[in-house]
Amino acid sequence: MRFGLLVPTVMESEPCTLGRLRAAATLAETHGFEALWVGDHLLYRLPILDATVAVSVLAAMTTDVAIGTNVLQLPLRRPIDVAKSFSTLSYLSNGRVILGVGVGGDYHPEWDAAGVERRGRGARCDEAIEALGWLWAGQAEAGESFTSPGVPMAPPPVGGRVPIWVGGRSEAAIRRAARCDGTLSMFVSPAHYRHIRDQILDLRGDDRPFRFGLELLGRIDDHPERARDALRSTFGRYDLDADALAKYVVTGRPEDFAEALAEFADAGVDHVSVYLPGPGWEDQAHRLATEVIPLLTPAATGAPR
Q1: For a Cys-Cys bond, which of 1, 42, 152, 275 suits 110, CB 3.0-4.6 Å?
Q2: Contact at 8 Å (CB) between 61 and 93?
Q3: What is the pLDDT of residues 19-37, one digit of tens each?
Q4: What is 156-202 written as a DSSP string?
Q5: What is the DSSP string of 28-66?
Q6: Does residue 288 contact residue 257 with C-beta atoms inside 8 Å?
Q7: Residue 143: in which H helix or E strand, if any?
Q8: Dihedral pair phi/psi, residue 212, rounded to 5°
Q9: Is the predicted pLDDT of residue 63 greater than 50, yes or no?
Q10: How confident is the model at residue 235, as a pLDDT?
Q11: CATH no. for residue 148?
Q12: Tens-digit pLDDT profile for residues 201-233
């Protein structure tokens, strides 16, 4: 299991300035995190940085860590724009970019502003993923919504394509992920995740490389009740049902957090994008790196014994 940090570009409690992005980059490289992730909205109920710009800045601030979207609402965009931006990011970062995608749709005003119908966004996402491949390969194709003229994209992404990881936990999202390079499920139990993993393996039917990722929301605090209160406040800002989602988040002491991570490692998760909302993000991320991850066994982290 490797670890990523979801950088708080959604400003639900504190501003996300250039200094915060720099702090995230330094922390990730100092402590050996695999990836830095950013969320995505064009318009939202909370302030949020543009995902592509934020990823670009993080790429310029780092040399080793991967950087990616968790997740870009792909149906809101034209594939040609996404293909070009992420091809350029891949080229400039020496292949360190990951394109995490999802169907989105939870905040209606941004879809209205973009002039995109929410209905049918799953099918639009599926075709957009195909179109990205056409565009990166310079392959002439035409689908129902998108077209590739067969003109090679130059410079191309490192390796010819940008890895695509798919967010979501629905049956459609699982099928979508099985056609790509990785998954980023959220709000699932270890048992549910094991089911998702088995489905993806069955759908792929071979041993092509695939990353089994998870976005895990949590709060580290030596007083578990205080951690729960902080997350309840966060859910309120997102207009989410705190009671319904409480069973999917991790709160409490470092050993409580490590125990939950170990359960997901047993379920087959090999990358965890940890979302640490609330005030004091740098302190939370530092505690994750220095107090939680060291508690995991070498078998869980893949470290040498």
Answers
A1: 42
A2: no
A3: 999 999 999 999 999 999 9
A4: PPGGGS--EEEE--SHHHHHHHHTSSEEEEES--HHHHHHHHHHHHH
A5: HHHTT-SEEEE---SS-SS-B--HHHHHHHHHHH-SSSE
A6: yes
A7: none
A8: -100, 95
A9: yes
A10: 84
A11: 3.20.20.30
A12: 999 998 899 999 999 999 999 998 999 888 888
CA distances from 299 to 75, 183, 190, 267, 303 (A): 38, 21, 17, 13, 7
Q: What count of Cα atoms within 13 Å lies in the side-chain half-sphere of residue 40?
A: 24
Q: Are strands 147-149 and 140-142 parallel, antiparallel or unpaired?
A: antiparallel
Write phi, then psi, for 186 (nearest 5 degrees): -145, 150
pLDDT at 46: 95
Average pLDDT over residues 55-59: 98
Mean pLDDT across 273-279: 95
Q: Which amino acid is at 80?
A: I
Q: Which whole-number Å values give the CA distances from 52 to 34, 67, 98, 115, in the listed order?
A: 19, 10, 11, 20
Strands 66-69 and 140-142: unpaired
Burial of 258 (0-12, 13-18, 19+ CB in 10 A): buried
Q: What is the share, in percent, of the chain residues with pLDDT greater than 90?
A: 89
The pair of structure tokens assigned to 149 is 């003229």
Taking 70 as the threshold, does the pLDDT of residue 302 lie above it?
no
Number of Cβ within 10 Å of residue 122's Cβ equals 17
How far is residue 111's CA from residue 86's CA, in Å, rounded to a whole number?
A: 22
Segments forming the whole domain that contains residue 178: 2-301
Put simply, whether the predicted model's pTM sits higher than 0.90 gets the answer: yes
Residue among 301, 215, 290, 286 at smallest CA distance from 250: 215
Q: How far is CA 189 from CA 194, 247, 259, 262, 267, in A?
A: 9, 8, 13, 12, 9
pLDDT of residue 304: 38
Q: How far apart are CA 129 and CA 131, in angstroms?
A: 5
Residue whose pair of structure tokens reads 């909370």 in the numeric block: 46
User: How many domains in the chain?
Assistant: 1
